[in-house]
Amino acid sequence: MNKKKWLKRLIMAVLLVFALLSCFKTISGVDAREINAYNQSENIEKGTTSSQKKTQSLEDAYNWSKEYPHKQVVATGYTAGVESTGKTPNEPGYGITYSGVKVKRDLYSTIAADTNIFPIGTILFIPGYGYGVVADTGSAIKGNHLDLYYKTVSDVYNKWGKQTLDVYIVKMGKGKLTEKDLTHLNENKAMQVYRQQYIKSEVE
């Protein structure tokens, strides 16, 4: 077989591989980084080697500054309570965000933002906090200002306070967020190794 035919077959094979990978991403919603995280979690469960048992933190797992665009923001913390929202637990709408989902502190937590900057559903990675999903707004949240949800006032002050930092834009929202969307993010099997790290850090 001549060189031209070999070259043509090689090009076709490469194109086929790219097409299959693209199709897999479109159908499954899982990218290469998530596959890597899943493989890490599988190796940890099997206990194959000591190096595989030590999973990196989210901050160290990716080169955030190279993989995602960033924006400098001022980030504060808030709770669902009267001190932040003016609502008490027995009032209608307590703990319900502008998007309609309940406030949540998890691997993917609900945060508030100016929707002219970050539309509802935008996923940000916030160093020191984790993933934040824009679900809420606020009269004082204007411009490059975020409000990060915490369960208690003491958590707001002890774990965050007020910080100016770069956040990374993982995915821009389309103006909508549902409980199903948030559950899907937090229960994504490929990300459970990191979710367990988060849960452990919250109870320590």
From TrEMBL:
Keyword annotations: Signal
The UniProt record lists the keyword Amino-acid biosynthesis: no
GO cellular component: outer membrane
Leader peptide range in chain numbering: 1-28
Keyword check for Signal: yes
SUPFAM superfamilies according to UniProt: Barwin-like endoglucanases
Name of the protein: 3D domain-containing protein
Organism, scientific name: Heyndrickxia ginsengihumi
